[in-house]
Amino acid sequence: MDGLRLFLMDMQIIAVWIFLAALFVLVLVLIIALNVISYRIDKERRIDKVLYGGTDEFSL
C-alpha cells in the first residue's frame, strides 16, 4: 500500500506540473493573439491615415 501511495503522490505532482505548463502556454497564446489583433487594428489605422490624410477619429 505504501508504494501505491507514493506512486499516487508522484502522479499528483506530475499533474500539477502539467497543469502549470498548460496555464503558461494558454497565457502565452493569449498574449500572442492580443498582439496580432492589436497589430491588425494598428495596420488598418495606418492605411486609413495614408488614404484619408489622417481624418479618421483615431488619428493622433
UniProtKB/TrEMBL annotation:
The keyword Transmembrane applies. Keywords: Membrane, Transmembrane, Transmembrane helix. The chain crosses the membrane at residues 12-37. This is Uncharacterized protein. It comes from bioreactor metagenome.
